[in-house]
Amino acid sequence: MKRVQLMIALIAGTLLPSAAFGQSYGYPYNTGGITRAEFVLLAMQHGGIAYGGTHCFTDVKTQHYAQAVCAAKQQGIVTGKPNGSFMPDQPIAFIEAGAIALRTEGAHFPPDSLWYRPYLTTLSEWDAIPNSVTNILMPISHSQAVELLEAVMDGENNGDDDDDNNDDDNNDDDDNDDDSDSDDEMKLSITVSDATVDAGDRVTFRIKLENEDNDDLEDIEVTAELDNDMEYISSSDDGHLEDDEVEWDDIEVDEDDTKTLLLNVEVDDDADEDDTLRLRVTTKNGDTLTASKSINVSDDDDDDDNDGDLDLSITESEDPAQEGDTVTYRIRLENQDNDDIRVDVRAFLDEDMDFVSASDSGDEERDEVEWDNIRLDEDQTVTLSLTVRIKSSAQDGERLQLKVEANEEEDTETTEVEDDDDDDNDSDDDIDVSITDSPDPAEEGDTITYRITLENNENDDTDVEVRAILDPDTSYVSSSHNGDLEGDDEVVWEDFEINEDQERVLTLTVRVKTSADDGDTLRLRIEAGDGSDTESTEIED
Predict the structure, then answer these.
(1) How many whole angstroms separate alpha carbon 158 and alpha carbon 429?
(2) How many domains does the chain have?
(3) Which of 145, 356, 401, 443 gives the lowest tally of CB atoms within 10 Å of its CB?
(4) Is residue 14, in this structure, part of any structural domain at all?
(5) Tell me, what DSSP letter sits at residue 460?
């Protein structure tokens, strides 16, 4: 019965429309059980992944689980709602928990029309579905969460150890005979986020140290030797770059425990095929374990004859940009063929980008923008434009990535986020803006009420202009505190007074127009002084 129910849920793809791990889908079982934040905290602890960061979502700031959730976001283990929230107190469904568990073990899958299908398949293959789970939509208990995480770790070890050992450089017969005791104490394995990449891609390596001894292991030195075509980006656990090596000092692994180190690199634009990252681990007693992991860099010239027919490039209007800024990307398509062609173009937004507009009838849905059937005559060049707004969740120094695919071609453009605190210490964080909506999802003809919370972090009283930019598929109904409608799509509160360290709330009510379609996303943008936020509302027929 369990497998039948799982397959029924799998076929009913509309029950799970996204892998955002932060959206509320109205599951029939979404009461009780371990919460999203609690499960992420447990998963990060179980996987030995370092914590770090705060204020990564609008509702994840400095709570006890914040550093674990923020580290998970940084590593791509979780994302959130388009408005930048995570909903940490929402009970988590089994399939979401299973996907997070697999991602903490480095499992990544290509996109699927049913996002959860490869996760469910892998959980089944690894025998990681607890017997007590009878539906992938049910919330899970703490004991089920622990059982899931342990099963995923066992499944990952059983499935990957042979491959990792085949990659080990430590194949000397004398070493295998003399150091058998140390081999039993410590195991080293490496997994990679993508085995085949393109030049310019970012790659995450997960270095797992497993202590099978009865004693704690201390003072372990870990060295990762980078390939010449790899550029260091970041690492967990105070890893630091020395020349072409990343070093970790004084790593500790408790008895019968594991420790996972994360290393992020970027493949050089001129990288050759079969780049290799090599890891060397030295234990406290001087014994050495060595393992290596290879990633293959694809050669675009070998793909097919169509690669040379279309030239794709991207430029941005502003780099670096600040939180709340709008950035316009110009996507240039050049037909180098002797025949007319038609091109489908897809742009994948960074999680810290909000869609604003697109030329040529570009259609946005779930952080992707699509242009269908763009005609390019022979030797013709067409330029598409895409405008996004940098979310408040974007952190200083973060590099946002826009990826564009057109036929067999693809290109990526990165935009750095720069905080202007150093230039204007008194203004950046003076006004905090947050928005909630009710109802969500909504239907055609419904009225939606937004609660706009403004917090003054200034040491003085201040008057701010508050501006609400309505979605084209909504019409103004009413607003509190004498908000005035300007034009058709903006509501303005002038000289709205907020005392120092005070929090005030505005309300705004709009009606969903008949032009809104099932599955559309309505967006309300609020700008107040130096603060801003965007709230998204789903349309459900």
Answers:
(1) 49
(2) 4
(3) 443
(4) yes
(5) S
- Tens of pLDDT, residue by residue over 201-256, are 777 777 888 887 778 888 888 888 877 778 888 787 788 888 888 888 888 888 87
Do residues 15 and 147 share a domain? yes
Q: Which segment of 33-37, 283-287, 461-465, 496-500 scores lowest on mean pLDDT? A: 283-287
CA distance 190 to 188: 7
Q: Are residues 7 and 156 in the same domain?
A: yes
**CATH number, domain containing residue 519:** 2.60.40.1510
Tokens standing for residue 278:
């090599």
- Whether 124 is in a domain gets the answer yes
Answer whether residue 426 is part of any domain: no
Nearest to 103 by CA among 260, 220, 216, 223: 260
Closest-CA residue to 124 (of 114, 292, 507, 116): 116
Element (H, E) at 241: strand 240-242
Same domain? For 6 and 100 the reply is yes
Report yes or no on whether pTM surpasses 0.85: no
- Check whether residue 274 and residue 381 sit in a common domain: no
Structural domain boundaries, residue 368: 302-421
Mean pLDDT of all residues in the chain? 77
Write the DSSP symbol of residue 93: B
Q: Are residues 221 and 74 in the same domain?
A: no
CA–CA gap between residue 317 and residue 415 (Å, rounded): 10
Local structure of residue 159 (DSSP, 8 states):
H
> Which residues have a Cβ under 8 Å from the Cβ of 177 and sit 6 or more positions away?
none
Residue-wise pLDDT tens digits, 346-375: 999 988 889 988 888 888 887 889 888 888
Q: Which of 127, 160, 193 is the last residue of a domain?
A: 160
Residue among 512, 504, 494 at smallest CA distance from 449: 512
Residue 180, number of CB atoms within 10 A of its CB:
10
Last residue of a domain, one of 94, 125, 160: 160
24 and 142 both lie in a single domain: yes
- Residue 46 counted as domain residue: yes
Let me know whether 416 and 448 are in one domain. no
Distance CA 389, CA 399 (A): 14
- Under a CB-based contact definition with an 8 Å cutoff, are residues 221 and 248 in contact? yes
Alpha helices in 405-496 (DSSP H): none
Are 192 and 183 a contacting pair, CB within 8 Å? no
Tell me: pLDDT of 506 over 90. yes
Residue 322 pLDDT: 87
Confirm if 289 and 304 have CB atoms less than 8 A apart: no
151 and 200 in a single domain? The answer is no
